[in-house]
Amino acid sequence: MKQAQQEMLDWHGTGMSVMEMSHRGPEYTSIAEQAEADLRDLMGISDDYAVLFLQGGASLQFPMIPMNLLRGKKQADYFNTGAWSTKAITEAQRFCDVNVVSDSTPNHFTTIADTKDWSLNSNAAYVHYTPNETIHGLEFADIPEVNGVPLVADLSSTILSRPIDVSKFGMIYAGAQKNIGPAGLCIVIIRKDLMGDVLPGTPTMLNYQTHADNGSMFNTPATYSWYLAGLVFAWLKKQGGLEAMATINQRKADKLYSAIDTSDFYANPVDLRYRSWMNVPFTLADSSLDKLFLQKAAQQQLLTLKGHRDLGGMRASIYNAMPEEGVDALIAFMKEFERQHG
What we know:
- By secondary structure, the chain is of the alpha/beta class.
- It has 2 domains: 2-238, Type I PLP-dependent aspartate aminotransferase-like (Major domain) (Aspartate Aminotransferase, domain 2); 241-341, Aspartate Aminotransferase, domain 1, CATH 3.90.1150.
- The protein contains 9 helices and 12 strands.
- The mean pLDDT is 97.
């Protein structure tokens, strides 16, 4: 953000802000190309995949995926492990028959069924899952094995938090506003052979091939969000890449879960095997203290800890940009609050 501030009015001596540039001009083209190159380098994305910088957030991908990936088939597989999976399923049902491979609704999205209980359909056009559910804090421990069917992942909340083998996926998509940059941008990483065979009537703008053929510039893209994402990619490389981020992120999560688990005052309901690195929901033993907890936390500059309206309690989101010192400060506050009110 400091670099963006310094470049706000004059990017590299051009006399222009990035916001003022033509998206087709050489200055902005260099920004866009460098951002894509850095993302490919960070994630190990091969030339077999197109990298698209789109708009509409991850939610627009929910209908775009069946429009583009059914490719003559009538069925798709979906895991239901939380609120975002549920939304993706609802949109897909407009276009195809959805087979729910595994449904975590009965256990209130606190665990994921064992693989022997999955009902994968070998005739599915693709398999969709949400590796990390931000609201319930439920995360897949491993990439699902889906027997060669193209695997699609909504990686919005975990992308760039650790290394991932892109070659195991047909498509990855991610809204920017967690680990990439400001809202307004959605990144799609899609295997090139999966593009081009869309449902009849698919609008031009909802065809991945349109964007791949035009370098994500068929229309004016979210230029400033793309620029800021590029700064984040460069920053991540300076930190040591995704291996270094994984070490930090796991340490942050382990610390926070340890503080919760060693206390009788706080609790986390998620199966130990499937706890999120990025989103840590927790409750207080006495929910009448929730309001006071949030007030006291805010006084310590510990903000946005209120849990999702569907769950209540608290939720600490510890994405890449949250330094380890911030987690340490939260833990110290939690212990002091427990000492005073436990």
